[in-house]
Records
---
Amino acid sequence: MEEKIKELKELAKQEIEKVTNLEELNNYRLKFSGKQGLLTEIMRGMREVAQEKRAAVGALVNEVRTFVEGVIKNLEEKLNEKKLNEKLSNEKIDITEPSKEGEYGAIHPLYKTFNKLIDACVELGFEVVTGPEVEVDKYNFEKLNVPKDHPARDMQDTFYITDDILLRTQTSSVQARVMENRKPPIKIVSPGRTYRVDNDATHSPVFHQFEGLVVDKNVSMLDLKMTLNKLIKILFGENTETRFRPSFFPFTEPSVEVDVTCPYCGGTGCNLCKHTGFIELLGAGMVNPKVLDGCGIDSKVYSGFAFGQGVDRLCMVMDKIPDMRMLFESDMRFLNQVK
Ligand code: PHE
C-alpha cells in the first residue's frame, strides 16, 4: 500500500510538469483529486489496511493530497496570470493609429435654409412661434377672410380630414391664432410644414412655409418694404435688389409679390431666372382690416403687415435643386451632394 502511494506521488510529480494550460490542469485535477480520481481510489483501499497501520498510511495519503492540491493551486494562479497577459497583449490598442473616416450626420438642406431664415428674423427682433399642422378650418381659412365657398379657396387645394379639420395649407394659420390670443405689439415668425394636393417638380404635397407678422400702431407699407428689403439683404447679400409687384391674397390688402435679383446671374439673366434677372420669392401685404377685427384687434387703432414664403423653393434656388420632391426622398446620394 505504501509503495502504491509513493508511486502515485511520483506520478503526480511527473504529470504536473507536462501541464501547460488550464484545460490540462483540470484534467490533472480530475485524474488525481477528483471524485473518481486516483486518491479516492486509494482511500477506498484503506479498508484492507491492517488496523495498526491505518494511521500511518492515512497520513501518507493526506500528504500526497496536500501535495497535489498545492501544485494545482500554484499552477492555476500562474496559468491564469499567463492567460490574462496574453489577452492584454493581444488586445493592445495603438492610440497613435489614425482613425477610420466615419459617417457623420448633417443638417438637412431644408432645415439649413430654415435656420438661415430664422436667424435673420431673430436678428430683426422677431419671436418664433409654431402652431399645429392638423388645423381647424377657422384658423386656416375663416379667420383669414376666406369663408366657406369663397373662390379664394381654389388657390389652395386642401387635404380635408373632416368638413372642419384639415391639414394646414399655409402657416398663416398661426397668424390667426396669435392675433386672437395676444394684444399688439405683435412681431412673430412661424416656420413649419404645410400641405396641399399638388405633386410635380416644383410642388410637393408636403412643403414648408415661413410666415412673418407685425401688428402695432402706425405700421405702414413702408415698414413692410423696409423689413423685407433688410431681410433679403441679410439672406442674399447687400447688392440684392427687390421688386414689389401688386398681387392678391384674401388676408392682406393691398397685397404684393416680392421678387429678388437672381442670386446666380446677379440680374443679367440665366436659365434659373428664365432670363428675367429676377426670381419670385414671397407673398406679402398689409393685414386686411377685416382679419384684424375678426381676431379682436381694433383696425382703427392698429395696422400690420404679413409675409409668407415657401422654404422649399428658396432651398431649391440656394442649392440648385432641380426637383422639389428630392428634398423628401431621403436619398443619401442626393443629400451628400448638398450637405
Ligand atoms: N399664405 C400665403 C400663401 O401661402 C402667403 C402669404 C403670407 C401672403 C402672408 C401674404 C401674407 O400663398
Note: Strands lie at 127-128, 134-136, 165-167, 186-195, 206-216, 242-249, 252-261, 278-287, 303-310.
---
Amino acid sequence: MCGIVGYIGHRNAVPLVLDGLQRLEYRGYDSAGVAVIHEGQIKIRRDVGKLINLRNKVESGPIEGTIGIGHTRWATHGEPSERNAHPHVSMNGDFVVVHNGIVENYLELKRELTSEGVTFESDTDTEVIVQLIAHHAQHHTNGDMVEATRQTALRLRGAQAIVVVNKHTPDRLIAVRIGNAGGVALGIGNGENFVASDIPAILEYTRKMIFLDHADMAVVTADSYHIQTLQGEPVDAEIHEIDWDSVSAGRGEFQHFMQKEIFEQARAVTDTMGGRVDFEKGDILLKELNLDEALAKRISKIVITACGTSYYSGLVGKFFFEQLARVNTEVEYASEYRYRNPILDENTIVLAITQSGETADTLAAVAEARKRGAMMWSVVNAIGSAAMRTADGYVLMNAGPEIGVASTKAFTTSLVNQLMIALRLGQLRGTISAEQSVFFAQQLSQLPRLIGQVLEFEDQIKALATVFHNYKDFLFLGRGINYPIALEGALKLKEISYIHAEGYPAGEMKHGPIALIDEDMPVLAIAIQDDLYEKMISQIEQAKARNGIVIAVATEGDTFIQSKADHVLYVPAMNSFLSPIVSLASFELIISIIVSGSFL
Ligand code: BG6
C-alpha cells in the first residue's frame, strides 16, 4: 500500500505521475518511486521519505517516457528503504510493477520461484508478483504479457491492486483489481489514459472514470482500453462522469461517504499495519509508542478512555490486552472518568482512543489521569492533533480522512492498532511465544481479504435491507469479544438513521431486554463459530420463542444456523481475535444500505 498512479499517452509521464502522487500524499507513505519505459529500457527512480526526495532524484538524474507508473508506499513487507520501494522490476528486466495490498501466499510463491532459480532484490511481497509474471511470460505464455499477468493474478491470495508494464510492449499497461484492497480507477483522456488507486490523483486530467470491479483486468493503451475478468470474460464497464464539485469528486463511484469509507476499510487496515507488522517473523514495530521491555514489564494496568465509537473500540481492546498481554484493563467513558477521582499510579497506562484526537472529554480525562501520575498513550487518526502531541507514546490509525458522520474505517483501524499494541506488549512481557507471534502476524495479513470478502456480500445485504428498512426498533446482540460490536452496531444505526436500536451482550438479554422482543423488533445476532457459539444459538432460540425475527451473522459454511435464524449473513471463517473487525463490516453495510435506501 498505498498510492498508485499510471500514465500512457503522448506526454512525458514523469511529471504527471509525480503530481498525481503528490495529490495522494494525504494518505501517508514512507517511500516513493516512479518508472518509465524509454527506448526499450525500464528506467526507475525511488527513494525513502517524502516525495521531495524522489523529485530531487529525478531532477539530478532525469528520466522520461510516454508510459510510466508511480507509487507511494507504506511498508508492509521489509523496512522502508530504496530497495523495498516500488516499482519493482523482474530479474530479467522485462517487467515493472506497482502494487497495493498484501500477497498472503507470497512466501510459498517466493520459495517456488527461488527453486526455479529466480533471485530477489527486495524483501517485499510485491516482487513476487513481478517475478511470477516474468516467469509465466517466459515459460508458459510465450511472452504474452496479458496472459502472464492473468495467470499470475489467479495465483495470488489476498486483496490486491496491481499495475504492470513490459519494456517490450511499451504501448500498453495492465491494471488488475483482486478483492477490495482499494479501488483501481481508469481515467479516460484524449489520446492518453490514466490509472490510479484514488481519483484525486488524476482528476485534473480527466473526469471520465471507470472503476474496476473485483477480479477485473484492464489492458490500457493511449487511445483504448479493454476490460475482462480474470476468467477471460469481456466486461462492458460503465464510464462515470465525475462532477466538478469537490464533494462528488471525493465520493467517486460511491453514493455517500459512509459507503465509500466502509469499502475503504480493507485498504485502511493494510495501511495501518504498514511498516509495523513483519508478517514473516511476527515482529511488531511501533516506534512512536516508546515501549521497551522494562516499561512493558512494569505496566500493571491499562485504562482505556474514549467516547462514542472509540469507547466501543476500547471494549474490544480490553480483550486483546487481557488475553494476549495479560494486563488488567479497564475501559472508561471519558466524560465520566474525568470526574471520578480515579485510582492510578505510575505503572498505569491511560490509553486515549480518538479518531479526531481533539474530543474534549477524552483530552480532559487523560489530563486528569496524568496529573495523578499515569502515563498516556493514544491511538489517534488526526496527525498533529492534541491527543498525539501530548501523549508519551502514540500509534496513528493511518485511516486517511474520515468524512462520513459514522466512524467506520477509524473504528476498524483502531481495533487493529490495539491488537498490535497488545501483541507487542505480550512479546515483551513474555506472554506470547515466538510461534504465536508468527501465527498472529499471519492472521493479520489475512485481514484485508477477510474484510473485502464481507463487502462482496453487498447484494445479499441489499436484499435484506429491503425487508427491514421500515422497522422502527432493532436489537443487536453479541457475546465475548463480539459483544462490543453489538453495542457499536446499535450506536451506528441510531446515530445515522434515527432508528431506535439497543445493543446488548447476549447473555444479558434474559435479564430484562427480552421483554422487548417481538415480531416488530428484529434481532441482529453475531453467532460466528467460536467458543460461545452454542450460547448464542440458545439466545437465538430464546428470541425466536418471543416471536422475534432473527438475522444472524454466521460463519460461512454453517448451515445449521439456517434452521435457527430467519436470515443469515455469512462472514468468512477466521480467528476469533479478528472476528470483531470483520463482523462489524457486515453490520455497517446493512446500516448504510438501510439509511441510504440504495436498494430501492
Ligand atoms: C462523538 C461522535 O461526538 O465523538 C462519535 O458523535 C465519535 O461518532 C465520538 O465516536 C468520539 O470521537 P473521537 O474523535 O474522539 O474518536
Note: The two ends are 35 Å apart (CA to CA).
